[in-house]
Structures are given as structure tokens and as C-alpha cells.
Design a protein that fits this description.
alpha/beta; CBS-domain; 3 domains; five-stranded mixed beta sheet; 12 helices; 11 strands; binds zinc ion
């Protein structure tokens, strides 16, 4: 599910916030989102409150997670055929999300999006064949698949994989079907409009699903609906941002008037600059080399831990994000998504400007009101 379009700067693969790294599969890091814990709690409560055997649940749960992971690896494998790298797979309670290292052209997006549900259909076929070979299928009627009985974890998994494939093919963001719809629409309409349509479908799907969940009542559906709504809204905002910045170089949005600190400046000097200017992030230089970046949060932490007379060199961030002034702004947007982020804009080792989330949002606002960038 959800091959989010992002581009990360080499060496600066900003991981999705709110996640912890769990393991690697085929060289792709797999991270767990903190909401994943909600799923674990939900399952735990369900097991306690149900008469079903916990071993059936355990097998089904494990099988489902493996199915979701294989679905994501399907996306990653096909993406790699198009020369696109998957930077991470994030596991959410309602499924996975594969982040690619750059935006996908429409044809690649269709193939990559189809690969996930295809994996689930193959898994379902495999399970079905296995059940036939062991005669288990003979005792499971179609009705049991629609209302899976609790006796066979394999039947539950078969049903689960068909559901995963079907659900992901719904033509609405952030489902894979929404990506296919967007890619198909983008052949005939501008990308932003195609994304808006797919995202609108996602919101409509979420609202209908949420209402049905509330009325039936099935609260798991409401929970799913919330995630779909948030995913669709996020995608809309990202698409708008992309369309407002596409083809514009970073130099058009960067801050060109700023203060720097020397590596032997003290935390007191930095605090004085923080108070006397509106700047929050200070590049640290040594001779004519940029050696680090001291942001507001690091500065406050340094005052508390090291005191005002310590050198900034001891507290600055040496692993800062550096961008080229000619790079496409649309491609660095995902890197700047983290609040309070600051990147240094550098050309041939020389500092040309700063790019912060604050000036980037001002730039987006001005673009939205039709202001043309000065390139
Ligand atoms: Zn998918």
C-alpha cells in the first residue's frame, strides 16, 4: 500500500518521524510506526475478550503481517526494476507504506502500485492450492470464507489476502488503486488535478466507511476510515506543494541574508544572536569552511547542559542537510517536511543561503496567491 512519492538527499535519508527501526528485508529498512502499538493493544484486547483460540489468532496475526510486508516488497521489487530505490517500509496499523527515493512517472507508478495487490492474490492462490492439496479446502465452503470460521487460520489468511488485494485496489488515495487512478488521469489532466481527484475519492471513501462503521457499529472500520482520511488529506497537501514548487530552483526560496557563528564562538554569542535577530538556525564556519549548524533547540539544550561559556563547536550538528541552489524545490519538499528543519544551500563548498520550513511555507503561501518566483 501507499508508495509515497518522496526524494531524499543522498546520505540524508530522513526517516518517517514517529517510527522505530525494526529490521531489514532485502536491504530495505522496515520501520514500525508508533500507532502500530495500537494494533497490538487492539489484538490483545480482542484475544482476551473472545472465545477464539489464541493460537489461531497468533498464526493469523503473524500471517497477516507477513502478507502486508510481502505486499510492500512487491512494490519495492517492481520499483527497483524501474531503477527506483525504496528508502524504507513503514508498518502502520492498517498496512504498510513504501517510500521511494524519487517521484514515479505514470507508467512506473501503475506497475509499482499493481505489484502489491498482485502479491496478495498470489498468496491467496498459494494458500488455496495448499488447502486443496491437504483436502482442507473441501471442508471450507464459500460461506466460511465470507464469514471466516475460527477453526482454520489458513482460511482466515486466504480471506485476509483477498481482502487486502481488493481493498488496496479501491480507486481512492491513499490506496494503490488511488495511485493507479492518479497515474491514468495524469495522462490527460495536470498532475495536481489528478491527485486532487484521487484524494477527494479517498476522503469520500473514508467518510462513507466511517459512517457505516459508526452505524453498524464496527469501530475497527471507523479506525481504518480515520487513517484513510488523514492519508488522503496528506497526499492532497503534498501534491499542492509539489505543483507550487515544481521546476523552481531552491535559490528562489532560500534566505540570503543571515548571520553565521565562528566555531570558537560561545553559546552566549549564539544566544545573543537568537535574541537580537529573527534567525533560529546558525551555520558555524571555520575559516571559509562550513563545519556545522546550530539550531534553536540544540542551542537551548547546550545552555542547559554546557552553560553559556561553552563553545558552539561542541553542540552543533555536524551532519546537516546540504542542498544545491539549482536543485528542484519540489524534490526537496519531503526532506523539509519535518517542523523546524533547516538546510544549508551550498555551491562548490560555499554557503549561498538557508532554507527553513518557515521561509518555505511563506514561499508556498506567496505562490498560492499567484506570486511569481524571482529566479
Ligand atoms: Zn500497496
Amino acid at each position: 500500500m501507499l508508495p509515497v512519492q518522496t526524494l531524499s538527499h543522498p546520505g540524508h535519508q530522513a526517516a518517517t518521524s514517529g517510527t522505530i527501526k525494526a529490521f531489514r528485508v532485502c536491504g530495505v529498512p522496515v520501520r514500525l510506526h508508533f500507532t502500530f502499538i495500537l494494533l497490538v493493544v487492539f489484538i490483545f484486547v480482542s484475544v482476551l475478550g473472545s472465545a477464539q483460540s489464541s493460537s489461531t489468532y497468533a498464526i493469523f496475526l503473524l500471517g497477516s503481517l507477513v502478507s502486508v510486508l510481502l505486499h510492500e516488497l512487491g512494490h519495492a521489487l517492481v520499483a527497483s526494476r524501474f531503477g527506483i530505490r525504496t528508502t524504507e517500509i513503514v508498518m502502520f496499523p492498517i498496512g504498510g507504506l513504501s517510500r521511494m527515493d524519487r517521484p514515479l512517472p505514470p507508467t512506473a507508478e501503475i506497475c509499482v502500485a499493481l505489484a502489491g495487490p498482485l502479491v496478495n492474490l498470489l498468496l491467496a492462490t498459494g494458500i488455496f492450492c495448499y488447502m486443496i492439496s491437504t483436502h482442507e479446502a473441501a471442508v471450507i465452503k464459500i460461506a466460511d470464507l465470507l464469514h471466516p470460521n475460527n477453526k482454520s487460520p489458513l482460511a482466515l489468511l486466504l480471506f485476509g489476502n483477498i481482502l487486502l488485494a481488493g481493498f488496496n485496489l479501491l480507486p481512492a488515495f491513499p490506496m494503490d488503486g488511488g495511485r493507479i487512478l492518479r497515474a491514468l488521469l495524469s495522462y490527460i489532466r495536470p498532475e495536481e488535478e489528478a491527485t486532487r481527484t484521487a484524494a477527494w475519492m479517498g476522503r469520500m471513501l473514508a467518510i462513507s466507511m466511517g459512517l457505516y462503521g459508526l452505524l453498524s457499529p464496527q469501530f475497527m472500520l471507523v479506525f481504518f476510515a480515520l487513517f484513510i482520511y488523514l492519508g488522503a488529506a496528506q497526499e492532497s497537501v503534498a501534491a499542492l506543494g509539489r505543483s507550487l514548487t515544481h521546476g523552481i530552483p531552491i535559490r528562489a526560496a532560500m534566505i540570503t541574508e543571515f548571520h553565521t557563528l565562528e566555531h570558537h564562538s560561545t553559546i552566549r554569542d549564539a544566544a545573543n544572536l537568537l535574541l537580537s535577530t529573527s534567525q533560529q538556525d546558525f551555520p558555524v564556519i571555520h575559516g571559509n569552511q562550513i563545519v556545522g549548524l546550530l539550531g534553536r533547540n540544540l542551542l537551548i539544550r547546550a545552555i542547559a547542559s554546557d552553560g553559556p561559556d561553552a563553545y558552539v563547536a561542541g553542540s552543533m550538528d555536524r551532519d546537516f542537510l546540504a542542498l544545491e541552489p539549482s536543485a528542484d524545490l519540489a524534490e526537496v519538499l519531503p526532506l523539509m517536511a519535518q517542523a523546524g528543519r533547516c538546510a544549508l544551500v551550498m555551491e562548490n563548498g560555499q554557503l549561498r543561503g538557508l532554507l527553513t520550513t518557515d521561509n518555505l511555507s511563506e514561499f508556498l503561501l506567496l505562490r498560492r496567491f499567484g506570486m511569481e518566483p524571482v529566479v
